[in-house]
Structures are given as structure tokens and as C-alpha cells.
């Protein structure tokens, strides 16, 4: 188990775990909404349980995994990450990591699965990157179903699925096969006064994109924050006429689609979405015309960025940072926090103050339904291959990340070393916050934890590891977008298209999506009259829209029957 390039002494790490008690009190012992992490012997007991049940002889497993975040910049393989050093020591299992070169994930994966030598574990997006999805990988004798092993070899994971049956539905195939140990995104409940461990966190429908507006301009003009579509029109006119904004609302076409802004006011989403278990497609709905008419009004009066259909991130950023835009849409980190910090670093006296704002409603008092939101299951996971001769050991290693101790280690590292508890919440130690080697907090943290992986990932690590969250408005924006932009994700759950349907679906939808994108731009810019909307709708029908919806509907019904 000792490897020459390990950065720290594992004996010291284990001592930190056992002595510091890095795992908080279980949620079952204290209500999740108020449970405060403690330093009891829980972590010691968990570690002892894993050690006691470990293999009597050394076990080595080969594990293929793509690079995570910026890991490749700070480690040569995952064996250098503190979290996996601890995991291997706790389970008594040695991992031999195999990483494809950055940028060659798909190419190397395709070569791997047709080779004569498969590693024991492959961590990848099976449903989206293998022909026929996970079922195809199983039928092709690449990976094995795990249904017969989870209950006996993964007690922590099995307990998690029982607690959150909606998660189990997401991670199953349509024939109810468990094919991987999944990436699940989780968060401490908003009503909790304390950070929660794996037992207290809940599956999170993450929102990270939304509308942002300059509060300083709102105050300068004596305006109230816009709420309705008409409020937005008045506000953007004021930005143009009184602030000289060249692009009062600057927004790229992808962000316009993804954020669900303006479309949600009309009760639709911008793509496929679910309406009481019925699949719908926003551009095929009558209300889509009203959505386009509103955007056309903004564009024709110079309130929507004239370059919205072609602008890239560099040009978009330049407009925001040079007072040419008063409202925009984008990522909370880059397009709110970083924008704020850049201007305030260059000019400490600037009044530039961006804040997140709720998507507009049609009428004051309306409740939005569809918002930008990712499902907790991130369509990736660790699967066991048909070459694996150590199934129980493999699942035991993966199950460590679903224990209280292991999940904390994978997300945070070791208490007293990489993080400490302050007022009930984990915060970085100086090893991360003020790294002695000069690494940024984000890079230093990459050496400690796994940012994305086959375990419940903690949203709190995202919040404090990003240097762009220095302004409190970033955190407020996330809460605003999550709680007020809608009640449901503006998209479909992780459904799967059957292999026999995929060719027809891909052929039809490829043409449809291209046509929709082209016509959306034309309608907004006035190159096509909205009087032609009925023709647009009929063209979609003739292109096979009904058949596409039928295929998606079948997929959704299979999803709910899992």
C-alpha cells in the first residue's frame, strides 16, 4: 500500500481521522434541519468497521477514470489525492489508476472497450457515450449488472437508495438494472443552520445559471427591481436611454435557452420538458409564439443585444465590463462573482454591483414553474467490467465513499488538515486557503478531494472552493435562482432512448433542432414574421415532431416504470 510518490504519511492521516473525529453526528441521531456536526467517536468506529472487514491478503484493483476538474494540473494520478490515500488505507485496497490524456477521454474510452484487456473498474458516462447506453454495454459483455451484489457488498449505498428512492429510479436502466455506482449531487437543506454529512444532505437539483442585473444602475435610476415582463421592458429602456447602454440585455443564445428566462413566464420551457408526465417541446407549443414576440419586441427596440445569436463569451464579457450592458445571463461564478471582482480589483471605487434576479413573470403574483436545474444524477458512474475477478472488494472500496467517514473524506479531506469546522460549517485550513506552495485555494483543494465522482458530492465544497465566491451576492444569487425561478427542472429526467429507436430519433431530431434554432433567431430578429408561426409549427409536424415526442413519451413512461 505504500507508494513512493504519496505526498503525506498515511499513518498521520489516519491519526487525524481517528483523533480529530472528522465525521459529524449522524442525521438519524439529530434532526437534519438542526443537527450540528460533532467530534464524537463516530469516525473512529466507521474506520474500524472498514478495517475489520477488510481483505486478509493485499488486494489490487485497476481503475480507469478521466481527469476531474483541474486535477491534472496538480497531481500525476489520483493516488496523490489525499482522499484516495485515506480511502485505500481504510479499505486495505490498492488502486492502480489509469487516466486517459486530457482531451482524449472519448477516443481512449472507445479504444478501451474494444480491447482485450479491460480494467476492473471504469468510471464514465455510460448512457450517453456507449452505443445503446448501459444496456448496450451489458449486452456487449463490457460491464456487469450489480443488482445481486449491492445489498450484501454495499450496505452504505443500499441504505442510501432506500432513503432516496427517486435517486434509485434515476440510476437504473429501463429494465431496472443497476449498472454503475453513480455521481449524485447533494446539498445541505436550505433550512439547516448547520452543515450536514451524507445522512443529512438531500439530492440537489442544482441551479447555477440565471439572470443578473446591475443593482447600482437600478438605484441610480430610482427604479424598483423588475418583476414582470413589462417591468423588464421599462427597466431596459431606462438602461438604454438614461445609461447609454449599447446592449441593455446582453445574453448569448445558449444562455437564453438554458436559463429558461422569459419562456417560463409563458408556462413553457425552451426544449423538451415534462408536464404531469406528458412530454412536451417548448417550440411546438402555442405559447412559444408569445415568448418569441416578447424577445422580438426587445430586439427591435435595441434592448436585446444585437449580437445575441453570434456573440462569444469574450465579447459578451467585454460588454458587461465596459458599461455597455445592464443585465445579462450566465454562470454565477464567472458572470457574477468574477465580473464583480475584476472591476473592483482594477477600480476599488467602482459602483459596479451585479446581483442575481428572479426570472420575470407575466403577471405580478404568478408562480414560475420551469427553471434551469440539473437532476441529482449526473449521468456518470463507476461500473465493474466483465474482467473484474474481485467484485466484492471493488464494491467495498466504492461503498466507502457512501459511508459517513468516507463521504466526508472524498468531499473535504481530513478535519484539522484540509478543513476545520467553524460555527457548524466546514471551512478551509491554511493548507488550502493560504497554500504554502503558492497554489490557489481551488488548485490546493484539487490535491485533497474528488470534485466529481461516484458518491454523493457536497454542494458546499463548490461554494467555498471557488475564488469567485468572494462577493456574498454570488451565494444570494444561487438561492434566488433556486427558490424563485420555478418549481420544476426545465427538462426531462434521465430517460433513455431504446437502441431500436435511436437511429430514427437522431435522424428526425437533428433536422428539427437545427430548424428550430434557425427560426428562433429569425423570429426574434424579424427576418421571419411571427405571422408565419403557424407555418413553422406545421413544418415541425411534417418533419416528424409527433414521432419524436412519441419516442420521448415512451422513454418517460419506461422511466416511471423502473
Protein described:
It is a single chain. Helix 8 crosses helix 9, helix 13 runs parallel beside helix 22 (499-525) and helix 22 crosses helix 24 (545-560). Strands 1, 2, 3, 4, 5, 13 and 16 form a seven-stranded mixed beta sheet that branches. The protein has a four-stranded mixed beta sheet with strand order 7-10-6-11. It is built from 24 helices and 17 strands. The longest helix has 27 residues, at 499-525. Helices cover 42% and strands 13% of the residues. The protein has 562 residues and is of the alpha/beta class. Mean pLDDT is 89; it is low at 1-48.
Helix and strand composition category: alpha/beta
Low-confidence stretches: 1-48
Number of helices: 24
Number of strands: 17
Strand fraction band? 5-15%
Averaged pLDDT: 89
Distance between the termini: 41 Å
Query: Which descriptor suits the 3D outline?
Result: globular
Report the helical percentage.
Answer: 40-55%
- The value of Rg in angstroms is 25 Å
**Sheet having the most strands:** 7 strands, mixed
Q: Topology, please?
A:
Blueprint: H1 10-20, H2 42-52, E1 59-65, H3 82-91, E2 93-98, H4 105-113, E3 121-124, H5 126-129, H6 133-139, H7 150-153, H8 155-163, H9 165-171, E4 181-187, E5 202-203, E6 209-214, H10 215-220, H11 229-243, E7 249-250, H12 253-258, E8 272-275, E9 278-281, H13 287-300, H14 313-321, E10 327-331, H15 333-346, E11 354-357, E12 370-371, E13 377-384, H16 391-400, H17 404-412, E14 419-422, E15 425-428, H18 430-433, H19 441-446, E16 456-458, H20 459-465, H21 472-484, E17 488-489, H22 499-525, H23 533-542, H24 545-560
Parallel strand pairs: 1-2, 1-3, 4-16, 7-10, 12-17
Antiparallel strand pairs: 3-13, 4-5, 4-13, 6-10, 6-11, 8-9, 14-15
Helix pairs in contact: 3-17, 8-9, 13-22, 22-24
Amino acid at each position: 500500500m505504500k507508494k513512493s510518490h504519496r505526498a503525506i504519511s498515511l499513518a498521520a492521516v489516519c491519526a487525524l481521522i481517528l483523533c480529530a473525529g472528522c465525521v459529524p453526528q449522524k442525521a438519524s441521531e439529530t434532526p437534519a434541519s438542526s443537527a450540528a456536526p460533532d467530534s464524537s467517536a463516530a469516525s473512529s468506529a466507521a474506520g474500524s468497521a472498514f478495517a475489520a472487514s477488510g481483505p486478509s491478503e493485499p488486494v489490487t484493483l485497476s481503475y480507469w477514470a478521466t481527469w476531474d476538474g483541474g486535477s491534472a494540473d496538480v497531481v500525476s494520478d489520483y493516488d496523490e489525492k489525499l482522499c484516495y490515500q485515506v480511502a485505500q488505507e481504510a479499505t486495505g485496497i490498492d488502486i492502480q489508476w489509469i487516466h486517459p490524456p486530457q482531451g482524449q477521454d472519448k477516443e481512449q474510452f472507445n479504444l478501451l472497450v474494444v480491447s482485450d484487456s479491460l480494467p476492473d473498474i471504469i468510471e464514465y458516462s455510460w448512457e450517453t457515450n456507449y452505443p445503446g447506453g448501459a444496456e448496450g454495454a451489458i449486452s456487449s459483455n463490457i460491464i456487469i449488472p450489480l443488482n445481486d451484489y449491492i445489498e450484501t457488498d454495499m450496505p452504505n449505498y443500499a441504505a442510501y437508495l432506500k432513503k432516496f428512492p427517486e435517486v434509485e429510479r434515476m440510476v437504473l436502466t429501463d429494465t431496472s438494472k443497476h449498472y454503475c455506482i453513480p455521481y449524485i449531487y447533494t446539498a445541505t437543506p436550505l433550512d439547516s443552520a448547520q452543515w450536514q454529512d451524507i445522512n443529512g444532505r438531500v439530492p440537489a437539483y442544482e441551479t447555477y445559471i440565471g439572470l443578473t442585473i446591475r443593482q447600482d444602475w437600478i438605484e441610480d435610476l430610482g427604479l424598483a427591481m423588475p418583476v414582470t415582463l413589462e417591468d423588464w421592458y421599462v427597466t431596459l429602456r431606462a438602461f438604454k436611454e438614461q445609461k447609454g447602454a449599447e446592449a441593455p440585455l446582453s445574453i448569448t443564445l445558449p444562455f437564453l435557452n438554458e436559463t429558461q428566462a422569459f419562456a417560463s413566464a409563458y408556462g413553457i420551457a425552451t426544449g423538451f420538458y415534462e408536464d404531469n408526465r406528458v412530454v412536451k417541446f417548448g417550440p411546438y407549443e402555442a405559447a412559444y409564439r408569445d415568448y418569441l414576440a416578447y424577445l422580438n419586441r426587445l430586439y427591435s427596440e435595441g434592448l436585446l443585444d444585437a449580437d445575441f445569436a453570434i456573440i462569444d463569451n469574450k465579447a459578451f464579457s467585454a460588454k458587461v465590463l465596459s458599461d455597455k450592458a445592464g443585465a445579462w445571463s450566465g454562470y454565477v461564478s464567472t458572470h457574477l462573482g468574477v465580473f464583480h471582482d475584476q472591476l473592483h480589483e482594477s477600480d476599488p471605487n467602482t459602483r459596479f454591483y451585479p446581483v442575481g434576479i428572479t426570472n420575470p413573470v407575466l403577471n405580478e403574483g404568478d408562480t414560475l414553474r420551469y427553471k434551469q436545474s440539473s437532476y441529482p444524477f449526473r449521468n456518470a458512474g463507476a461500473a465493474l467490467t466483465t474482467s473484474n475477478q474481485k467484485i466484492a472488494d471493488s464494491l467495498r472500496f466504492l461503498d466507502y465513499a457512501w459511508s459517513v467517514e468516507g463521504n466526508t473524506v472524498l468531499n473535504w479531506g481530513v478535519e484539522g488538515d484540509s478543513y476545520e469546522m467553524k460555527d457548524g460549517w466546514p471551512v478551509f485550513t491554511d493548507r488550502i486557503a493560504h497554500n504554502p506552495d503558492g497554489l490557489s485555494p481551488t488548485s490546493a483543494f484539487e490535491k485533497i478531494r474528488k470534485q466529481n465522482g461516484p458518491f454523493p458530492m457536497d454542494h458546499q465544497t463548490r461554494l467555498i472552493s471557488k475564488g469567485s465566491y468572494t462577493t456574498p451576492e454570488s451565494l444570494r444569487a444561487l438561492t434566488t435562482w433556486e427558490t424563485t425561478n420555478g418549481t420544476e427542472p426545465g427538462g426531462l429526467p434521465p430517460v433513455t432512448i431504446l437502441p431500436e429507436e435511436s437511429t430514427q430519433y437522431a435522424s428526425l431530431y437533428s433536422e428539427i433542432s437545427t430548424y428550430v434554432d434557425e427560426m428562433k433567431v429569425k423570429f426574434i430578429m424579424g427576418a421571419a414574421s411571427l405571422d408565419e408561426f403557424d407555418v413553422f409549427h406545421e413544418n415541425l409536424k411534417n418533419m416528424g415532431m409527433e414521432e419524436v415526442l412519441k419516442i420521448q413519451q415512451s422513454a418517460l413512461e419506461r422511466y416511471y416504470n423502473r
